[in-house]
Amino acid sequence: LSSLVPPATLLDRRLLIVTGKGGVGKSTVSAALALLAARAGKRVLVCEVNAQERVAPLLGAPPAGARQREALPGLFTVNVTPHEAMREYGLMVLKFRTIYEAVFENRLVRYFLRVIPSLAELVMLGKVLHEVRAEERGRPRWDLVVLDAPATGHAVQLLRVPSALVDTVPGGPLRHDAEWMQALLVDPERTALVTVTLPEEMPVNEAIELDAQVRSVLGIARGGLFVNAMPEARFDAAEAARLAALSDAPPPLGPAARAAHLQAIRAQHAARYLARARAALDVPTTVIPLLPAATWGLDAIEAVARVVASGPVPEAP
Amino acid sequence: VTGVRDALATRRIAVCVGPGGVGKTTVTAALGLARALEGARVLVCTIDPARRLANALGLQALGNVESRVPDHKFAEAGLRPKGALFAMMLDVKRTWDDLVTRHAPDPARRERILKNRLYQQMSSALAGSQEYMAMEKLYELATDRDYDVIVLDTPPTAHALDFLEAPDRILDFLGNETARALLAPAVGAGKLGLRLAQLGGGYIAKTLARFTGQEVLADLGDFLQGFQGMYDGFKERAAEVHALFSRPEVGFVLVTSATPVAIDETLAFHERLHAESMPVAALVANRVTPDLWPAAAPLPGEAELAAALAAEIPGPDGGLAARLARTLAEHQTLAASDRQALDRLFAALDAPRAVIPRLESDVHDLAGLARLGERL
Questions:
Q1: Which residue of A has its CA nearest to B311?
Q2: Which whole number is the average pLDDT over A299-310?
Q3: pLDDT at residue B237 is higher than 90
Q4: pLDDT class for A4, splitting at 50, 70, 90?
Q5: DSSP labels for A170-215?
Q6: What pLDDT does residue B187 have?
Q7: B153 pairs with which residues across the strands?
Q8: Residue contacts between A and B (CB atoms, under 8 Å)
């Protein structure tokens, strides 16, 4: 169903969907991809979906809320909420503000909109995809839209809405919108999905499950795997063994050896999970090193962007 | 610091809530396993969309029915449970179908609802549906089965909040009289399109149909019509389910990591539970960086470590002392920031708690879960 997007052209897509398990750094990767694109002179919009906003603060800017806001030159962010998306969608369908207000101020109508399955997801996704298609003065409004999607299961639910509606709604504006949205999502020229994970057991399991669903259910082109917070292989096997034996020594050596031992175990586990994720997904893989704790905000995003810019790395022999 | 298991010892139902990515599912499984090892008949239930618990329990797949963790899995892990451990994964659609089947007055009505296109989508797509069904299933398990202990996993915080609101939201949907009145007569006559135009709210209905398409409204009308007479049963049931969460046999366990974002979300959730009179029974701070260096003493530099190393391992150290110094410094920076974050949490939330060091909590087999359980 899905085809592979060559890594070099990842930023040439019109829409990048970033997802993965909760807490793996989706917003960090979204922000870094957007920063790179903006630095390359593109006009970029990062969309979060009804979320506690993370991207703008990571870029050192205030949260945008429901209105697009320029966080850095050429880089805009927005938090798409059901309420605002519904309003915009309603105005588009009904054309006149007065009609919208007359109809939508009616409590009963609000009830219908709220309870019709997936309508909130549809209008939020519709808002994002609309931005991808929108043109201003004969050219696309955005060169790139980055969708910082919800965590795995909810992202699949969100991205499945158009095809579910195409399957179940026989006609009308809902179906019409679902059709063009689905066409955009599965167009490998315009859209790619990237999976973010940590080199840990559960996030990698989830990344593998997500990838299977992307292929079998969503049919969205897979743009790559980002493995975040990869600890460096700082101690070789012989050193690690020696340090483990010194862990109970008195300070200063004992605590230092113990810290090193913990670091070595983490790095060793991480290498195993990285290999597992790579083998299962078999897409271009970008490995983002674990940054020192002091690196935060825009500095961290800059550091991640530098890694992403250097491109996916082949597996070590 | 321990006490999580003590705090839960008198509770039959433990509900684990917290932000994503903190190891909530693992903690859930570890709590359940610990009780099973002590002799209880335990069920661990997850409603997370990604099927992670199966992996943690070494089961290939979990379904809507409880399956027992086999003896050989325990034997392989060197464990001898005095009780039994069961696990399951909530199937939202199946639970809805069961609920409809239970409340439908006759088979024809049941079929009418189960075949409704909107219903088929709704059970998986209506916001709050999953959470509502999790509570429903928990209630069923708590009342119809003979488990001594049930440990429930929940989706990440954003949805865990929905968890408490879900029944009201769904009931508002099922029981909206005005909506039914608007659509029901037309559906009864089988001529929705015609009726919509004739209704008192004809203008609104027409505009709405333009918005959604008429078929969607017809499906909705048919669905609401099918539900007529069943609503009271649903409402009663939902009230019982809600009341379950306020019973003393239920305890909420807040699971968090020490990242500032996770702490913020955990505090928000605590406030919310408190407002609902559903107090937190215990708190698990997971994946915390342990403090390895004696308080107040300055961290050792490369030279100091090189000297200490030379006493243990003669010969050139290949830059090992420098790497050790850097590793310890990085580690302690993380430990300090974790401690600061947890101090903020503990100051705001006084509950029995456990602090689980990183790595020790990164487990995915029964033996690891058992070790984690001992620390809770």
A1: A253
A2: 92
A3: no
A4: very low
A5: -SSHHHHHHHHHHHHHT-TTTEEEEEEE-SSHHHHHHHHHHHHHII
A6: 45
A7: B16
A8: 198
pTM of this structure: 0.81
Beta-carbon separation of B262 and A257 below 8 A: no
Residue A7's pLDDT is 45
**What does the pLDDT average to over B15-41?**
89
Asked if B55's CB is within 8 angstroms of A205's CB, the reply is: yes
In this predicted structure, which of A209-218, B144-153, B179-188, B221-230 has the lowest mean pLDDT?
B179-188
CA angle, A80 then A84 then A89, to 5°: 100
- List phi, psi (to 5°) of B86: -120, 150
Cβ contact B20–A21 (<8 Å): yes
Yes or no: say if B293 and A253 are a contact pair by the CB < 8 Å rule: no
CA distance B249 to chain A (A): 30
Rounded distance between C-alpha atoms, residue B264 and residue B155, angstroms: 17
Residue in chain B closest to A102 (alpha carbons) equals B204
For A285, the enclosing helix (H) or strand (E) is strand A285-289
H or E stretch including B340?
Answer: helix B320-348
Are A195 and A20 in contact by the 8 Å Cβ rule? The answer is yes
Q: CA-nearest residue of chain B to A250? A: B308
**How much is the average pLDDT of B79-84?**
95
Mutate to test the interface with A, among B28, B261, B324, B362 (most CBs of A within 10 A): B324
pLDDT the model gives residue A5? 45
pLDDT of residue A159: 94
- Residues in A closer than 8 angstroms to B359, CB to CB, are 262, 265-266
Smallest CA–CA distance from A213 into chain B, residue: B50
Min Cα distance B48 → chain A (Å) is 8
Collapsed DSSP state (helix, strand, coil) of residue B156: coil
| Inter-chain touch B176–A111, beta carbons under 8 Å | yes
ipTM, interface predicted TM-score of the complex: 0.79
